[in-house]
Description:
Layout: H1 5-13, E1 31-37, H2 41-54, E2 59-62, E3 78-79, H3 88-100, H4 102-106, E4 117-121, H5 124-140, E5 145-148, H6 149-155, E6 170-174, E7 178-179, H7 182-195, E8 199-201, E9 206-212, E10 215-221, E11 224-233, H8 239-244, E12 253-264, E13 272-275, E14 280-284, E15 289-300, H9 308-321, E16 330-340, E17 347-350, E18 356-360, H10 370-383, H11 397-400
Parallel strand pairs: 1-2, 1-11, 2-8, 4-13, 11-18
Antiparallel strand pairs: 3-7, 4-6, 5-6, 9-10, 10-11, 12-15, 12-16, 13-14, 14-15, 17-18
Helix pairs in contact: 2-7, 2-10, 3-10
Amino acid sequence: MRFSALRILKEGLTGNKGWSAHWRDPDPKDEYDVVIVGGGGHGLSTAFYLAKEHGITNVAVLERGYIGGGNVGRNTTIVRANYGLPGNSEFYSHSLKLWEQLEDELNYNVMHSQRGIINLFHSDGQRDAFARRGNAMVNQGDDAILMNRDQVRDMIPYLNFDSLRFPIYGGLYHPRGGTARHDAVAWGFARGADQRGVDLIQNCEVTGINIENGKVRGVETSRGTIRAKKIALATAGRSSQTAAMAGMRLPIESHVLQAFVTEGIKPVIDHVISFGMGHFYISQSDKGGLVFGGDIDFYASYASRGNLPMMEHVMEAGMSLMPMIGKAKVLRSWGGIMDMSPDGSPIIDKTDIDGLYLNCGWCYGGFKAVPGSGFSYAHLIATDRHHEPAARFRLDRFQTGYGLMDEEATGSQHNLH
């Protein structure tokens, strides 16, 4: 079934009785060419591009819960390509281009809104850093506009410009950045993969990876043994646990990142705004809720919930930046498990085990990377060659020290990225 304005009108006039299921609910087959462990954004997009770009359709995506119930539905929905270092810059530029054609490609409304992102700076040093980043973005072919204080005030006058502690000097504006609806992205990729013959196996927890003579043979699951020629791990904050099933120890720490949404209010925030002195970022959803977040909780955890001190920290940053939101009631909060790498940059690579592939270490960049990650991961799985925009995301850089990408310039501490 294809979506169209005519179809929506027809269903609306006939009681919405003609819709069919978005994807099948099949039982797992005995064997697949590729088994993807993890039914989040990265796993689903990988399955979609394996089928679309490489014609590999004998694929199963194994999800221990339900589609859209993991990290892909637990984030602040930001899409951007404002990275400054070679490696990350090319990749996120490629991913943003895929975002811009995604709705047509999937025939699905993922509510991608290029409302623009403004990263505020509050000192001369921050201005210099954002000027360098903006130049790197422009050289990459993306958009970046360095704005002074008056230009920022004209665009977003409701900020606290008179703060003595955190004066606003200006901002770096990325017009093509914005947001997308997180669960719609998961559903769109799931629907697209299913239409091309991929099996989406929900409520199927992987409990072991079978390896013989250095080569993968399949996986053990809560629904039985499934043989596979290739196994692709895409389990985000659970990457260390799934890789351990294959005897691997990854350079990954898992931390919780909290997000919050308020009651619906009238439209007030047109852009995504990032506070340079408190790691606070905020946008307004189409329903009117203010969606915001901040730092990760600075301890390792697999719990999908956060703690009150970090909640207080995020609220303090929000009030420092825009006191006007103080009376908005917070409706709910949630936590996603972040797979933090030592240099703040991801891993898309083959492992030393024949037929086992790895996709992890996305830190704060997982959602915005969904299309680019799936495209590049599918290319690697299908051809055993790195896709050029993701060629620097090698696992062995943490062993050799060559090719490390310290995007945030905070060293090798996972929790600071």
